[in-house]
Amino acid sequence: MVKKVKIICFLIFSILIFSISGYSQCPFSTIGTAKTVSKNELNLSLFYFSLYGLTKTLEIEAKPLEFAILPHINLKKTWYYKKSERNKNWLKSRNLIIGSLHGINYPTMTLKLARNKGFRNLMPITTDIPKILAFRNEILISTILKNKTSCDPSNFLLTLKLGTKFALQKGENTLPYFDNPFLFRETSIYHKKLLWYVGLGLDGHLYSNVNFSIDFDYKSIGLKTDYRALEHNFLLYGQTGSRDRIRLSIGYKVSWSNFPNKKFGVFPLFDITYIFKTSKANSRDLFDPGVYSPNDEDRELE
After folding, report:
1. 287 contacts: CB under 8 Å, gap ≥ 6
2. What average pLDDT does the chain have?
3. In the chain, fewer beta carbons within 10 Å around the N or the C end?
């Protein structure tokens, strides 16, 4: 535990030193928010989901390094955008972004590989693994807490997240429940369970070209169950390199769960993203009224 804390402190200190060389304001990441990346923009990440803007309001997500053994795909769509306006009523003066995320994956090959290789003795070699399709659905609602003024830029992007995961399967299933809290949680849906969760996240400008992201999640297996988890993530991220194309993210995750026994853990987080932007992705296209424009939002967050 002490070693992990030292690693986290070192990573956070490193990005603060890294930020000294930057002076431009770093745009907010779209990860975990109702926003999508711009059309034709590609965010290629080492560990987290890579993102590509199919349209102005639709992005596709995948992890290329994992796709061969765990086929998966996510689609995130921004459905509604209300621009902020001057109003004495605080709620009416906020902008509002509503989106949803929908994912599907096929974990059968990964499970069979773990069984055949005896990975961490998770399951007997005789375990029957069915054909499984797992689904993920989330509703995302985001708003800016601090509107732009003549003196200060807008700041603090707050996001409410409501999500579920479930699976459909065909064939004999003798998969065990795993002792590892993460595996126990994620594979519980292979036993005809519903995993649901609610979370609150906040992105903000911290210093120069460095932003922070903090979130808290409550997760539960089933509607009437004693299995639940509390998770907290904290990230610092900033952009550097030629035309700020490289985004470095570092931070930590804190998790408490009783999946299946009470456990507490602290884990370092790290990712590198390269951002490809075409001339079309940088263009200032107009949107129909009431439809979210990532470019409009970027101007508000400058």
Report:
1. 56, 81, 293, 296
2. 85
3. N
